[in-house]
Amino acid sequence: MAKSTAGFRCVECGWQTPKWTGRCGECQAWGTVEETVAPRLVRAGIRAAGYAGGTGSPGGRLGGGPVSTAAMPIGKVDAAEASARPTGLDELDRVLGGGLVPGAVLLLAGEPGVGKSTLLLEAGALVAEEGPVLYITGEESAAQVRLRADRIGAVSENLYLAAETDLDAIISHVREVQPRLLIIDSVQTIAAGDVEGVPGGVTQVREVAAALTAVAKDRAMATILVGHVTKDGSVAGPRTLEHLVDVVLHFEGDRHSRLRMVRAVKNRYGPTDEVGCFDLGEYGLIGLADPSGLFVSRHREPVPGTCVTVTLEGRRPLLAEVQALVGPSVLDVPRRVTSGLDSSRVGMVLAVLQRRADVKVGRQDVYAATVGGVRLTEPSVDLAVALALASSMANLSVPQEVIAIGEVGLAGEVRNVAGVPRRIAEAERMGFRRAIVPVGAIAATSGTSGVEIIEVEEVRRALAVALRG
Q1: Residue 272 needs a FRET pair 20 to 30 A away by CA distance; which of 63, 108, 369, 399 works?
Q2: What is the pTM of this model?
């Protein structure tokens, strides 16, 4: 009465096909199409099994099964069990929304050598002061991790270390140690013996992550999984890995800079797109409570092609400087090079300047970058980019006490952005005295003292205000 049909499904996006293909027809990912068996139930089969269900029949699950916990009114659920516990690293706690929630599963992704293991080793040593912590390393030996712990001062009696790559062995360690925090470095090196595929493959990563998530929820044990990234910066492995976990953190930083940033892109227990800043040195990571000065260069005299803005990372305002260099091109196709900025938005600002403000940059090479290795993707940076480009083109300087905040539209208008009062307050704290903002922002910042607010309606007016005299 029931018939099973074999089909194929992409584990990344769920696209289905009756035949196997090496590449997904929806998300264009390679090697993600796997065979699935979907039972096809006919009405006669359902009627034969009955709604009460019977074991071994297609409709057996319609009768239900045993429950793990009884349902109760939401008002009687104890919310204290999901309260965050601080890790001891203030910048990490800021990103997490207060700390680690018991039973939460976190995914920390970052490029090789950025400092993921150092960050988690420091956090593990601090959490170990309150209870046992289990650190599983699958990429290094236990002795190598001990050397790093000695160097950064992360040795604790309650910090347990094991070098394992087998999932069953890890679960045995958890049962023996009973940790309050489990750290897996990294999830791509762990393999389940009863699952086909090599460690790091789509099937293995999905099954290992699902098993560790189940253990974490059952024991109310916070778990941190280290994940690899692809060459484009996204988390390696199946997309379902990010759906399984509760928090996804990206650890970012330039290898040639000491600045490191932890950014939350998913957080079920706190704000998203929050950022924490660290200084990576010889003896580990040091939190930076006030990183604004790192993203602004100091000049004795005003320099053409520079403009300061205030970006909002989560709830934290950060001062950042945009620099631009425009010069004649010797190529048939002029260069457009960006660093730390969205290249598509810079190209859009260039088009608006040329069309709406008569800034002729068609035959010019354009280089635009940020200071300190920070990456600015917020639309509020558009106005600062426009002023820096026009300043370099005209060889006129934007005054050092001026900041620019606003989104630039294709019609040349300057649009309002969120959090203007908080941005202005941060600029005032850092010594800036004039702010070029969109029309309508002055009402929200009327209580701000010490900063002259200049409202502009279009980019042409902003250029006239910033570059006059």
Answers
A1: 369
A2: 0.76
